[in-house]
Amino acid sequence: MKYDVILAGVGGQGVLSIATILAVAAVDADLRLRQAEVHGMSQRGGEVQSHLRIADRPIYSDLIPVGGADLLLSMEPMEALRYVSFLKPDGVIVTERTPLININNYPEIDRVIAALEQFPRVVLVDAEGVAREMRATRSSNMVLLGAASAFVPLPGADLEAAIGKVFGRKGESMVAQNVEAFRRGRAIAEGAHAG
Amino acid sequence: MPKFVPLGNEALAQGALDAGLSGMYAYPGTPSTEIMEYIQRAPEAAERNVHRRWSANEKTALEAALGMSYAGKRALVGMKSVGLNVAADPFMNAAITGVNGGLLVAVADDPSMHSSQNEQDSRFFGRFALIPTIEPANQQEAYDLAAYAFKLSERHAVPVLVRITTRLAHSRADITRGEALPEKALTLPQHPQQFVLLPAISRRNYARLLDKQREFEAESEASFLNRYEDGPDKRRGILACGIAYNYLMEHYPDGCPHPVLKIGQYPLPTRLVARLVEACDEILVLEEGAPLVEEMLRGYPFEAGTVHGRLDGCLPRAGELNPVLVARALGLDVAEPAFTAPEIVVGRPPQLCNGCPHGDTFRALNEALEQYSKGRVFADIGCYTLGALPPYNAINSCVDMGASVTMAKGAADAGLVPAVAVIGDSTFSHSGMTGLLDAVNANAPITVIIVDNETTAMTGGQETPGNGRFEQIAQGLGVAAEHVRVITPLPRQHAQNVQVIQEELEYDGVSVVIARRECVETARRKRRS
Ligand SMILES: Cc1ncc(C[n+]2csc(CCOP(=O)(O)OP(=O)(O)O)c2C)c(N)n1
Ligand code: SF4
Question: What is the pTM of this model?
């Protein structure tokens, strides 16, 4: 088994927190892991990507080859489009639908969504909306992760355990809220038809 | 033992702690910063009271580490690529003094310049100083190298350079830890003159360093970091340095069909290289950084021949490697990606945070400068360098830490009056003070704006060495008290700030304007913890 994920977003959106949960779950399942992070200049509101690789045998490269990713998980719709060249022909895109507009020349959002809808396997999630409904806006990442979990070859229960570990020191209600957000996200993906 | 999934930087730090480290000395810089940050968080470092405070710059860091080595203990220095330029003086001379306790100089290079002004390759510095250089290929080697390299350093009484690159520094993997060694006791060097580089002693030390080159090479031949892996297809042999080995093996998970020489320690192991060259028709050199080994193998002149790499276009001359570039160099079939980003995707450059104090300073500075011609603002390195981009377009240079003050002085010397320097508080502490002294001595008509956000923001909010003392420092260096001004960069203070800057621009001498307000990102982080 080998599973390659490109995580994308905008600096400050918490791309690394999603990566950490996937990483903890993979390592707890005794899988091998590589996860390339982005630090430094690009974090100031710029585009951010992280490569996460899990496998049941040694992994060599820290970077995923172009055309090699099984999953592109993005916290922002235009950022998802930026990295589609990394995707395998049958790779899946799971992305937040709400744009983060911090530049003047952001394209029309309808065109961004239309471009995304042309991909063979894509799940657009209104994670921000779901989190707002839950009165837990900080948990929108977990909604996205939940949606992605429908495709990731790690048991949902293991991912929930990882959420518990990562958010544990912030208290039980925080964990419960994030697990709930995760489950709602998963239900959305299971209801969608990304093939 | 619980599972350990560190960044390459963290693996290196834990390895050093487990190898009996007594002190780490560093100045922050991407992609090296997490080495020190890990040691600052590590409980055993606190228990053992391992030195772990940031230094004022890379030069002071390396010198302090050399002092710890003099006293017989194991020391680690950390910096980014260009930091070694600042520390080059003690670095080159530490190779001549040699060491007592083990001394490792860890430098994180940044090919493709993700967060750096250039992509210089520190392996050249290792060759320049004639000392052993280690380049780990993965997180496990990054961990394992410290115990090995401290012994290497002590066995030969030389500093050892450890070179890593961005992708290893900032990538996590699961690794296994080894046993922990005790720290070394305080012991002075056997020869009381070892560290006295008077010419007669230097010549002796240098001759000894030259003599050791064969021993260093013998170490490389036997090193666990250098490995010859035979393969049946001898039409091509591959020499892969550091993490380039991973991009090669990515394509051959069950073993490479060609002979491979994996390199992780320099000087090059001549016998292993000769074995590869003799066995194979052609050699492909894969290295993350400059074509240093490739150039050595080619000799001169660079005719088309049997050595391939970055110099013959087989790989790009600049930038970091990746699996696809290496696949192409190997002549493997690389399928075009199934998808390409649509044209509507636009760049999203980094920018100052909302409410950043630097934004208010730039707005005030731009207005104060309206009456002068453009092109007179020399800036420096930090978040405020983003003032070069719209909407500010406020600065005209960013070269190396501290250069704002000295370039403004030079431009003023040439007649560009007034000239302005914009420098961060950490950058000023690092290397702005000596330049300010030059300016004071010349009574140069420059206005130095210290954008004091009370932190080293660009690299993640480390303490600033001169925090809280900039007024005294400026006055101590000779700036007249009435021309050391403090402003608060806030929108409601705008008119006042413009006026202060204007007054100082008109002054025919050195002024220092301290624009002080805490970085909003650092303030937020403090509130959270
Ligand atoms: C010689 C050298 N060392 C380290 C760095 C990395 N670096 C870039 S900016 C910076 C700190 C900037 O801090 P400050 O001047 O306070 O500005 P701020 O980012 O807080 O605005 C550092 C350490 C570098 N570019 N060059
Ligand atoms: S991190 Fe601080 S200094 Fe840097 S842009 Fe943000 S607010 Fe400004």
Answer: 0.96
Structural domain for B178, as ranges: 3-211
- Within-domain flag for B419: yes
- Could you report the per-residue pLDDT of A13-35, keeping only the tens digit for each? 888 889 999 999 999 999 999 99
Is B388 within 8 Å of chain A by CB?
Answer: no
User: pLDDT digits over B248-305, tens only?
Assistant: 999 999 999 999 999 999 999 999 999 999 999 999 999 999 999 999 999 876 666 7
The ligand minimizing its distance to the Cα of B353 is 2
Given a contact cutoff of 8 angstroms between Cβ atoms, the answer to whether B465 and B438 are in contact is no
Q: DSSP strand E in B211-324: where? A: 227-229, 236-241, 260-263, 265-266, 282-286, 307-308
| Residue pointed to by tokens 């490697």 | B321
- Judged by CB atoms closer than 8 Å, whether chains meet at B342 and A102 is answered as no
Beta bridge partners of A5: A52, A71
For residues B69 and B188, state if they share a domain.
Answer: yes
Give the number of domains in chain B: 3
Here the CATH number for the domain that contains residue A94 is 3.40.920.10
Q: Is A1 on the interface with B (CB under 8 A)?
A: no
Partnered with residue B448 across adjacent β-strands are B421, B512
Closest residue in B to A80 (Cα) is B341
Q: Is residue A103 part of a domain?
A: no
In a domain, B343, yes or no: no
Cβ B248 under 6 angstroms from ligand 2: no
Question: How many domains is chain A partitioned into structurally?
Answer: 1
